[in-house]
Amino acid sequence: MKASSTFGVFCPLLVASACASGVVNGGDPDGLGGAGGRTSPTLPASGGGSATSVVIELPDASLTHGGTGGAFAGDAVVACIDGSGCICPTLDVAVVGTPGVWGDGSDTAFQDWLNSNSAGSAKVDNYPHKPTFTADFLAGYSLIILAGLGDNSNAGPWWTFSTSEVAAFQDWIVNKGGGVISLSGYSNDNNDIIAKNALLAFSGIAYKEECNSPPCAITDASNNKMCYRCGNPYQLTEWNRSDSVIANLSFGITMIGVDGGRPISAPADAHVAATVARTTSVDDWLVGKLTGKGRVLVYADEWITYTDQWSGHNGSNDPSCKGFLPETLYQTAQFWYNMIRWAQPNDNCFKIVDSQQPITVW
Q: Full-prediction pTM beyond 0.90?
């Protein structure tokens, strides 16, 4: 498959290589004035002012960021309204927690994938042992992804966060513009959501004490269910595309592989981006909320962290799996891009380059 192709240059353009080709837009993609993270100047509108471009060598994907908040060698083409050089800082991401145990992938599969496929526009640090959420620790990141908050994501023992840590986390989001993406479904043990619900309590969003899966949404030519064949679990297919606040979360998405996720309780001022219909009810599976200067995004499952959900490791040598592998059916890379971009809307230079699943940058 071909990688992404034509790009417009606004902000710096970087191009390179359970219970698991676009245009880079400057400014605020969802029109909400979303705060959080670092900002970058954009080209003036047609007919207004002049822009000066500063050309710097493109980064190698293996380069590491030289320090929190600063530029590093290789940041790319820069367009500035005031004529000064404006390097786009790296998006600093912390994955806090232990990985899931149910799908394919190493202990750092997702982190390694994001580091190697963000073309230097993001740097991901992994915290499989509980860090202390102090103001100084949190200040080093624009985005935190909450994984399994236990020494083992399936069995614990489960982590706890002190009152001061919870307060620091809330302050980092509401007043400092931090973004959080929370994942669940790592374990059937209800204790695994206690720490997440405590950290998210200020937003009014919480995980429920139940573990569900959607119906199987794909069948082969003989109408045989394809769940748990060719690397497929169940599928999330119901997206809210009409709410402008969260519409971009489902941009370019048809279905995502899921299994055993925890439905979400969403307050009235939150925005539900994906649901799962049950016999007598509808569960919320992806919920976003703008809170102060930051954003909270809560997702029911963890299967999107397993590499077989975009690379098709399972069944790739089985001829009957042709057309039914995860990289064909699911848009996992696009979904990750959408979530990260939504959670930190002012990091206009963040991108993912994935030869398996080329994405559209919005």
A: no
